[in-house]
Amino acid sequence: MTRKQRRLTMIGGSLAVLAVAAALVLNAMRDSIVFFSTPTMLAEKPVVAGKRFRLGGLVQPGSLVRGDNLAVTFQVADGSAALPVSFKGILPDLFREGQGVVAEGALDAAGVFKADTVLAKHDETYMPKEVADALKKQGHWKDDYGAKPAYDAKPAAATQGASQAKQGVSQ
Amino acid sequence: MTLWFVFALMTVAAIFAVLWPLSRGGRAQSEGSEAAVYKDQLSEIERDVANGLIGSSEAEAARVEISRRLLAARDSQHGPLMASNTGLRRSAAILALVGLPILAVAIYLPLGSPRLGDFPLAQRARAPDVAQPFDNLVAQVEAHLEKNPTDGRGWNVLAPVLSRLGRHDEAVRAYRNSITYSGDSPERRSNLGEALAAAAGGVVTAEAKVEFERAVALNADEVKARYYLGLAAEQDGRTGEAASIWRAMLAKAPPEAPWRPLVQAALARVGGAPAPALPNEAMAAAKDMNDTDRDEMIRGMVDRLATRLKQNGDDVEGWLRLVRAYMVMGDRDKAISALANARQAVANDAERLQRLNEGLKNLGLDG
Amino acid sequence: MIAESGHYALVLALALALIQSTVPILGARWRDPALMNVARATALAQLLFVAASFAALVALYIVSDFSVVNVYENSHSTKPLLYKITGVWGNHEGSMLLWVSILALFGGLVAAFGNNLPLSLRAYVLAVQGWVASAFYLFILITSNPFLRIASPPIEGRDLNPVLQDIGLAVHPPMLYLGYVGFSISFSFAVAALLEGRIDAAWARWVRPWTLVAWIFLTLGIAMGSYWAYYELGWGGWWFWDPVENASLMPWLAGTALLHSAVVMEKRNALKVWTILLSILTFSLSLLGTFLVRSGVLTSVHAFATDPTRGVFILLILCVFIGGSLSLYAWRASALKQGGLFAPISREGALVLNNLFLTAACATVFIGTLYPLALEVLTGDKISVGAPFFNLTFGPLFLPLMIAVPFGPLLAWKRGDLLGAAQRLTAAGIAALLAVAMLWAWTRGGNAFAPLAIGLAVFVIAGALTDLAERTGLFRVPFATATRRARGLPRATWGSAFAHAGVGVALIGIVCETTWNSEYIATMRSDDVAKIAGYELKLDGVTQRPGPNFREMQAQFTVSLDGRRLGEMTPSKRNFTARASSTTEAALLTRGASQLYISLGETTADGAIAVRIYHKPMVLLIWWGPMLMAFGGLLSVSDRRLRVGAPKPAKALRGLQAAE
Predict the structure, then answer these.
(1) Which of A14, C33, C169, C511 has the smallest count of CB within 10 Å of its CB?
(2) What percent helix, strand, coil does chain B show, rounded to 5?
(3) Which residues of C touch B62 (CB under 8 A)?
(4) Which of A1, A24, A164 shows the shortest C-beta gap to C396?
(5) Which of B275, B291, B309 is the last residue of a domain?
(6) Residues B335 and B259 in one domain
(7) Is B41 a member of any domain?
């Protein structure tokens, strides 16, 4: 092979790998990206039943009902709207009424959000960032949710490798 | 002064770090070069051949390639080191001598607080001005109350603290406000009386006596008020009346009442009954102690109380006393944890729990 | 006085870094040895001062000096001593101080043990270190100063976060930083080479030990963080594709690529331009990781926008260094001479393939991490890119890489013989097929993918062994000759064999854990028995007991297998009343490389307790793999060939060990 041919082979190989990587990324982007929504956003822009998304809001105080065999239902609210959520499994340590929560799952035909994962991922202000942002936008944010500015999140600061305040439950 | 000395020393060390290489720069330096690397690669090939790791023809090809690199490296060798470049060296030295200290001071002064000493916790706990940060807290509460003078709870918290700090006149005012804005209660009345008496150097004045009488009117069993009424009688010279008040108190008192020794001692003083010797001594001892020792003794008493409550958590009053003691000692975290323990201890007893919560409300710690 | 001395030492370190970043460059331009040697003295002095500054902060934490804002906000007098010390880097300001301390440490090591470098190269390298250091000193002093004071100090500190009081968490950030910051050395070497306009095979040999050291620490740091998340978070996950984790994975991928391309450059004087680019990219990704974690942009884009001082400052540093070095690269790279030629099928070709896949994988992680941020900034839409995305992109890219790994070391330089290599790998291939067949038979009807993946892992491990056997002539020559040859083998060869085997080991762990992980979630009462993967776990009872600053609910389980008692497990849940928070303390029972894992949920109204029990087969291999890789790296670092040209080899050896 001449020098030129070798170089062409190399460049061709590189481009092929890059093309494969790009194709993989685009394919994955289409299928595996999950959008975030809140009850209010849902009221404005409904999501079809069965499509997975992340639901964020505050756990409505008094709405938590524990059923048999680790089944729980609760309401997620963000001030103006609320949505019933059902879940089966162990709730994370930091799950509590009146606090922020993010649940991943899909709506069923009856309009109940079937969660398969409940995250109480948050920093020390006990507020998941998506929820905090959404609440702030709607003016429901109270400063006492966070004693410190949220950007100085201690958990993230303390752990480089793992987001330590993350607690998740999967069925 | 020492701080500036340390700064100066550090600055000198930093300047020295720059000047030192400049001063001995003329001497030849051991310097690595590419040639050394290639020579080593060549000897590595020899080793590999000797070990039979590579064949002789491959070794020959590699040797040729590395030798070519070696030659190239020799060709492109850096120019010779300059013996010296006095001008540049001099300016570098000046930069270090003048620029470095100026820069350091210019950055440090706006950021640092050179006049603040160290405040390690251990040292502060022993220091004579132990109350200094506590004073800050008090000042904060006072400032808050100046803006919100109708905050009864604030006055409730502030008043006993002022009493303990020996600012009795202000404590009197605080108790009065506390009664005005949080409502009347036998405890508040008797505390007010106590503050009045303390302000008068321990004499139960007529004004104080009125408050104690009101307290007793509200609650006939109000211990502090009755004790002080006895004291008033004693100070007025009516020892018989004093003795009968105290005797009545003792008769009604539960055997484990913490104030029992105090009343017994008082009773013995007016010749009413033989008192146990120890409390008297303890009281006397406490009087002679200096502030530090008294603090020590108070801490010891609080610790004993905490231990007792850990073993037997039914004593609501004891818990309240413990919480209050921690509050007064300025240890809010301990107070909160004591509170949590108290709740846990009496959780099964609705009546006690209620009493506890009321007491805590009075301490300004509910919730 | 401690606080102010520490503060002033930090200022002096900045002043020295500024001198270090200018004077030596002038010296190198004028070939004046004295001026060039200023780099060495200032780098050492800078290390001294920043170490003093860091020690001062540690001392302030130990004595609980709450007149220092940073101590007041992040410590508490009742913390155990160990966590007072580790609390120093458990917060933004302290961790940035640790960051620059490690930067100065690496600079100091180059200064102390870089005798084998040409004087001008060392001067340039240290000057570039000086630039990076100056930027971060300024960042700390202006936006994140840990030595700010309170005039009337409070009596007690604010932080007693129970989750942060953990030994794993305490050790792993310094490890990660040693990795992150260690790549600054290869960056400085790359920029120095561009400034000098000279780069050759020797450069690669000089830069390789530093890259290796950084890579070892980063490998260990990532593994440690993953294990910490596994046992502390209470649900047995060990990798979340969380942005914070990705921030450490990206430099690791780029760094791994750099290690391999530096080999090509050292041996064959080829891939020079690419290696320089990788050096720049690796450290840029480290800086990006620092930006992502430190600016708060991950916590909330909005919070970042409302209080952007820190974020913007780091972003500025990021732009200056990445932009600056890439421009310099674009300007000077074309001047670098082309190196040795090689055929596509050759050791070089295999390493290029490795680089291609590693960087492509790194790019997918990069996109997955930054795309949500970019989208939120641009459109306001919030999306989450989680494990499915990375499994679909990262996985397929790693697959061909794994297949190629055993071939690389068996191909000759310049022009390789693929068929020959394949022949020599026959044994490894047969081992892999056997593994697949056995697993297939054993798990009939199960997941078809898992046996194949494990077969691939076995192929990688057997391939690494084949390489060693080939080089020593094991089975071909008498055993005594083979052992003699084994002793004569360069340690770097052993190192790469170990590291490659480590990849296979980790892959086995990952596949086993994700495929055959069994899970049991239920509410249990006393004397209930849970059956999982053949084990029987009987709940003996639940006890409440008070701890120093928490109440603990502890459950006792008796574990037995086929009626034989294996031991007890006591998971617990701690409630910290003072902070109204709770932590889950999982219980682990290790059986070989597998583990049983129990964590507790909440108690129900009728006294039963929710438990989560996992059986995680071969899970420990996930972390043994990286340890094996790090060990391989260590062997390579200790290879005498990397210390070529050092006038005093023994001293240089100590230097490298000191860095470990």
Answers:
(1) A14
(2) 75, 0, 25
(3) 413
(4) A24
(5) B275
(6) no
(7) yes
**The domain boundary residue, chosen from B111, B137, B163:** B111
Same-domain pairing of B264 and B327: no
Higher confidence at residue C200 or residue C300? C200
| Whether residue B163 sits in one domain with residue B88 | no
- Chain B environment of C48 (Cβ under 8 Å): 13
Could you give the CA distance from residue C418 to residue B338 in angstroms, rounded to a whole number? 75
pTM to 2 decimal places? 0.75
C222, closest residue in chain A (CA to CA): A161
B107 shares a domain with B6: yes
Number of domains in chain B: 3
- In this structure, is residue B177 part of a structural domain? yes
Buried b (16+ CB within 10 A) or exposed e, C41-62: bbbbbbbbbbbbbbebbbbbbe
C604–A66: do the CB atoms touch at under 8 Å? yes
B288 and chain C: CB distance < 8 Å anywhere? no
| Residue in chain C nearest A24 by alpha carbon | C393
Neighbours of chain B (3+ CB pairs under 8 A): C
Confidence of residue C210 (pLDDT cuts 50, 70, 90): very high
Report in angstroms the alpha-carbon separations of C214 from C48, C106, C318, C536.
21, 10, 20, 44
The residue whose two tokens read 């949590």 is B340
Strand partners, C553: C544, C573
Contact A6 C296 (CB under 8 A): no
CATH number, position B205: 1.25.40.10
Chain C residues in contact with B57 (beta carbon < 8 A): none
Per-residue pLDDT averaged across C264-285, rounded? 90
CA C272 to chain CA centroid, nearest Å: 25
What is the interface pTM, i.e. ipTM, of the complex?
A: 0.84
Range of the domain at B247: 152-275
Q: Is residue B232 part of a domain?
A: yes
C-alpha separations of C609 from B31, C466, C491 in Å: 70, 52, 54
Smallest Cβ distance to B133: which of C4, C5, C153? C153
Are B158 and B258 members of one domain? yes
pLDDT digits (tens, 9 = 90+) for C626-647: 999 999 999 998 876 655 433 3
Least-confidence region, from A39-53, B96-110, C147-161, C283-297: C147-161
pLDDT in tens, C381-435: 778 888 889 988 998 999 999 999 999 888 888 888 888 889 889 999 999 999 9
**Does any domain span residue B130?**
no
